[in-house]
Amino acid sequence: MNRSFLLLLLLSLALLVPCRAEEPAFDPTKLVGEWRYENEPQKQVAQYAFRADGTFTAELFQGGESVRKFEGRWKIEEGMILYTYEKDSLAQVGAGARERDRLIRLDESSYTIEGGDRGQRSYWRVKESK
């Protein structure tokens, strides 16, 4: 009886241990290129360029006018896009500051992130002009 009780206790504890879902493995080479997010109601546009050398540039537009530019380094780690800023045209983010977005989906034509504000945004690949 002692053995049965112990086995039942261990099984119960095992069921209580939280299961951690595996983070999907994203191919960083798919993120290389130019991407655009548009929020039409707020007349906002964000455009990012991720380079194969691990650097990025970004520009934010409001009402069709550029309001901010920044650049730095990027990488994908544990399902997150990690940004390390090097320059910010408004000096709102200091050099070396870090930020991350949870990568929800990534394919050849678009990707979706969950930002620090818990909002989800989808970016669409900017087609290269030939």
Commentary on this structure:
The termini are far apart. The protein is globular. An eight-stranded antiparallel beta barrel has the order 1-2-3-4-5-6-7-8. A hairpin with a 5-residue loop joins strand 7 and strand 8. The mean pLDDT is 86. The chain has 130 residues and is mainly beta. The protein is built from one helix and eight strands.
Radius of gyration from CA coordinates: 21 Å
User: Strands across the major sheet, in which order?
Assistant: 1-2-3-4-5-6-7-8
Strand content: over 45%
**By helix and strand content, what is the structural category?**
mainly beta
Annotation field: number of helices: 1
Shape: globular
Layout of strands and helices, then pairs:
Layout: H1 2-16, E1 33-39, E2 44-50, E3 55-62, E4 65-77, E5 80-88, E6 98-106, E7 110-114, E8 120-125
Antiparallel strand pairs: 1-2, 1-8, 2-3, 3-4, 4-5, 5-6, 6-7, 7-8
Task: List the defining traits of the structure above.
eight-stranded antiparallel beta barrel; globular; 130 residues; 49% strand; mainly beta
Give a summary of the structure in a few sentences.
The chain is mainly β and 130 residues long.
